[in-house]
Amino acid sequence: MIKILIPTILVATFLISTNQSAPVYGKEHDILPVSETNISKMKILASFFPIFEFVKNIGGDKIDLRSIIPLDAEPHDWEPTFQQIKEIHDADLIVYNGIGFESWLTKIQGDLPINKNNFLNFTSLIQNHSEYNNVKGIMNSDTLRNDPHIWLDPILVKSQLLIIGEKLSDMDPENRDYYLNNTNSFINKIDRLDQEIKKSLSNCDNKDFISMHNAFNYFSKRYGLNYHTVFGSSPEGDVSPQKLKKVIDLTKHLNITTIYTEDLADPRLAETIASEISKGRVLYLSPLERISETELNSDIGYIEKMKQNLENLKIGMSCK
User: Fold this and answer.
1) Which of 93, 106, 187, 258 qualifies as a FRET site for 116, CA 20 to 30 Å off?
2) CATH superfamily ID and name for 2-134+144-193
């Protein structure tokens, strides 16, 4: 209940407040400094890491881009501050995933005096691919409806890029060629990534893999894998001895020796499961919902993270 009330109170406070200076939030490298060179640029907000990455590659130096959620923060339970609500109000465009992934934005969106054209999401794209939403958790029986994790499917990412490129072009027609060229350039990189994944996963001893929460529906369907998830739509849950045994029994039945946990997450449950499996091991499989500061400082982005996932999948499924 508290989480529901906080954004409403903040919005009300914002609506009656006087203007304040623009906030600084997220990591310093997420924010282009306000200067004479970017005062006239469109101010774009992206909700979290993958959206930020896509907009950055298309908008380049023609936009003033910020990530609302710090790029290394867990996005699921995040809530905005007063200053961040003001930044949303002042932005020219807010790009977010949709379908309730950014529930905090849904709570405040109707109360902010912002033109609906200032918001861009991918809800329709997600709803048009509902056939992907059929994986149940081993410990929790809930099935994730309208799975938001479309950014893990390179083919659907191309659709996201086209949507972003068209929106920026419509808002800034003078730079239309720039945005569309960047869109095509990044799509070419995504095409190469897709081909690499297809080739790498075409000859594997085991097509089954298991991860902690239900994030890889789109990816597994795209590349013909059999996906199993421990906790369904939530990355966490209650772990009774009976439920733990159910997971271990499944891994043995499917000859799974690798348990995938998430980067930037507690690996202890995965380690416990792996310890009960012959030759069991734990590897990381990122849902790409956030990225560490070390990775950011090393210029690691979406494509590099996807390739890291691919390498660990090849190991876990014994791909030739």
Assistant:
1) 187
2) Nitrogenase molybdenum iron protein domain (3.40.50.1980)
